[in-house]
User: Fold Cell division protein YceG involved in septum cleavage from Paenibacillus peoriae.
Amino acid sequence: MMKYSTYQSIFPMNLENLQETRKEGRARFMQIITNTLLLKLLIIVIVAWIAGAGVLTVFAAPSASKEEVTKLTVQPGDTLWEIAANHKPERMDTRVYIEGIVRINGLEDRGVQAGQVLKLPNF
Assistant:
C-alpha cells in the first residue's frame, strides 16, 4: 500500500475562503430556520385570532332577555305556524320566527298543546 500520494488537486485550496463559505452557509441556514419558525408562529397566531373571533361572535350573539319576550297561552286548535304568523314582525319570514320560538322555549318538536305557555321573542 501507498503511504504517501503525489496527488494534487487541480482546484486551488484556499482555507480562508472555505471557512468564510461555511460561515456564510451556516448564517444563511440559521436565517432560513428563523424565517420558517417566524412564519409558522405567524400562521398559528392568525389561526388562533380567527378562531377566537369566531368563538366571541358565537357567544356575543344577542340573546332574548326577560323584557324582550312576551308570554302567550296556547288556545285549543292553535298551531305554531298560526301563532308565529300572528305575532311576528311584518317583514319577517314566518319560518325564522318559528325558529326563534322553538329556541327560546327549548321545544324539541314543533307541536304545541292547548294551555301551554310560550315565550314569544320580540325582534
